[in-house]
């Protein structure tokens, strides 16, 4: 019998893929939207599904910052995929603009689920809540980012505090069954052109905008693997009250540039190393560079063994995930 799954923030890059995969396997999907007018955008992104699958898709208008709509959203739901959260490309003037919606939104969704008697929740967190200020080699799910680490941005703190709030809620309400997925930089093939901030990183590399590349390592994961982790976590009793690193590996910008150059030889993609003093100068004029400056030269490794063992996910190599994104961008 098909289950009804609520996907919060269904217009998101990750959420659309999860919705597609849930519908494809026969589930009923209800998505929350801040503005109901964007429902056609989601339907267009999922148009590759057969009509009978799309008939199992519906929408509810609900905002993370207000209670309106959440009781309706939770009615008759068997499980919740809470994916909604802000993701800025540049440093916000006021951190509360990012942290507030992430933390309060997570608590609001969990409270609404609890009130409706919905106990099964899968939360989309981030590697940002795992990797900052951590010295483990490799890092595992036992690691938590230090919000005071010099590499932490407002977005990082929003993910740390939102995930902490979720675990605190579950501790106070042990009947709630939570699983947390911590994706890295999400690449792969998007469902549509509304790709969000993570794809912009690949777009920047592919554009040849930068004459040099930073010595920057980022955890990379394919969007298909992110969706697979969420759905497997929803299904598996072994995933209850656990968090999962959802990334294939840390990949260096220069290695990713080399992979892209090999696949797009006509593009002017530089593989030269950018000296840190140059990046410091550029950071004065480029908010994106300023955001990554504290991470330059920092080498990290991760283990995704838990996701492979518990969830059965075999991760796509990082360079292949990035190439898939580039192919999508080039085609569009």
Describe this structure as you would to a colleague.
Helices cover 41% and strands 15% of the residues. By secondary structure, it is α/β, with parallel strands linked by helices. It has one domain: Rossmann fold (3-Layer(aba) Sandwich). The strands form two sheets. A seven-stranded parallel sheet has the order 3-2-1-4-5-6-9, with helices on both faces. A three-stranded mixed sheet has the order 7-8-10. It is globular. The mean pLDDT is 93. GO terms for molecular function: oxidoreductase activity, acting on the CH-OH group of donors, NAD or NADP as acceptor. Residues 3-193 form the Ketoreductase domain. This is Ketoreductase domain-containing protein. Belongs to the NAD(P)-dependent epimerase/dehydratase family. Dihydroflavonol-4-reductase subfamily.
């Amino acid at each position: 019998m098909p289950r009804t799954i609520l996907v919060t923030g269904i217009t998101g890059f990750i959420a659309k893929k999860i919705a597609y995969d849930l519908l494809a396997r026969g589930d009923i999907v209800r998505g929350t939207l801040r503005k109901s007018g964007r429902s056609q955008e989601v339907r267009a992104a999922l148009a590759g599904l057969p009509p009978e699958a799309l008939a199992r898709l519906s929408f509810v208008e609900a905002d993370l910052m207000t209670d309106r709509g959440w009781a309706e959203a939770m009615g008759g739901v068997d499980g919740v995929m809470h994916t909604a959260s802000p993701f800025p490309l540049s440093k916000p003037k006021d951190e509360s603009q990012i942290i507030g919606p992430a933390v309060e939104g997570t608590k609001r969704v969990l409270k609404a689920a609890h009130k409706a008697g919905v106990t099964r929740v899968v939360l989309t967190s981030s590697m940002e809540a795992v990797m900052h200020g951590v010295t483990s080699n490799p890092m595992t799910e036992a690691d938590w980012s230090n919000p005071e680490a010099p590499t932490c941005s407002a977005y990082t703190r929003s993910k740390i505090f939102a995930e902490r709030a979720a675990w605190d809620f579950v501790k106070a309400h042990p009947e709630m069954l939570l699983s947390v997925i911590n994706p890295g930089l999400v690449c792969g093939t998007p469902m549509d052109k509304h790709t969000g901030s993570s794809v912009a990183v690949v777009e920047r590399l592919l554009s040849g905008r930068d004459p040099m590349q930073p010595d920057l390592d980022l955890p990379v994961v394919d969007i298909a693997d992110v969706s697979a982790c969420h759905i497997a976590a929803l299904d598996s009793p072994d995933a209850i009250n656990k968090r999962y690193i959802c990334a294939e590996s840390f990949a260096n910008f220069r290695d990713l540039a080399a992979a892209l150059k090999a696949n797009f030889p006509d593009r002017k993609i530089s593989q030269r190393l950018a000296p840190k003093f140059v990046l410091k100068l550029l950071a004065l004029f480029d908010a994106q560079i300023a955001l990554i400056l504290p991470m330059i030269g920092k080498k990290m490794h991760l283990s995704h063994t838990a996701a492979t063992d518990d969830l059965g996910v075999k991760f796509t190599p990082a360079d292949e995930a990035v190439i898939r994104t580039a192919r999508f961008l080039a085609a569009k």
